[in-house]
Amino acid sequence: MLAISDILTPVLAMILVGFILQRTNFLHPSFWPSAEKLTYFLLLPATLIHSLAGKKISDLPWLKMVMTVEGAVIASALLVTLWWLTHRHMEGAAFTSLFQGGVRFNTFVALALVENMFGRDGLMLAALGAGFMIVLINVLCVSVFSLAVGNRGGMDLRRLLNDLLRNPLIVGCVIGVGLNVVGVSLPKAVDGLLALTGKAAFPLGLMAVGAAYRTGSLRMHWQPLAVSSTVQFLCKPLIAWGLATHLGLSGMATGVAVLLFSVPTAPSAYILSRQMGGDHDAMSAIITAQTCMSFITLPLTIWLLR
Length: 306
Prior knowledge:
InterPro entries: Mem_transp_PIN-like (IPR004776), Na+/solute_symporter_sf (IPR038770). This protein has 14 helices and no strands. By secondary structure, the protein is mostly helical. It has one domain: Na+/H+ antiporter like fold (Up-down Bundle), CATH 1.20.1530.
């Protein structure tokens, strides 16, 4: 429990810092839109390229891990989409927050927990699984924004394809995976530059979440919060466990897969919501609430794994 608290407390603290900075007007209000744009177009893509390029996967059960994590991501996306199709009173912008809240995952928290529980071998396996998840999740989320928010008059496949090709997060994923596939290692200076640039994405993104949070948001957006959290903390871990067990992954690999799907949603969900016209107020509430809830859900998940 102490290890989980040590990992999650800095996340909540950075959200709180952003909330205080915005409420006290310590920074000019124009700072936050600029910070969000910087994170979206530069910092997050740098993080993705650094994370996905140069990973050696030949000695890992990568095929079974990929099948497990991709299957669980697709299943969670189908669950939230089916719920929305049966509750069409929810607007498209609000659905994008529900979707991201039930499909995305906090990479930082997941990798830190895996390293704490399973050591370096588990961390390498988690990084592999997270890399494949990141690509699929970004494609799914951008597609949902394009269809639910950008195409109010109906489906426009040309616009969808354009959104996918121009999205900086997907571009970062494609570059990182492409370098990995062709076996090209980044020069140390370039890799170091990307790592240093990417380190700013996490704290800046969390502070932007806190700056956007409004008192009463949890009560106002209780429905997408409740549905996304049910999928995030209950359905996804069970699906991941079922797939890993069925595919015959080892005990450690199964534990890694379950932990990847037991953490709260990612702070980058808020940045994407702001930039693509989603309900960023609902997204901020979901990120904050899920991070708080994970203080309870993660110890329970780890106890069940053990």
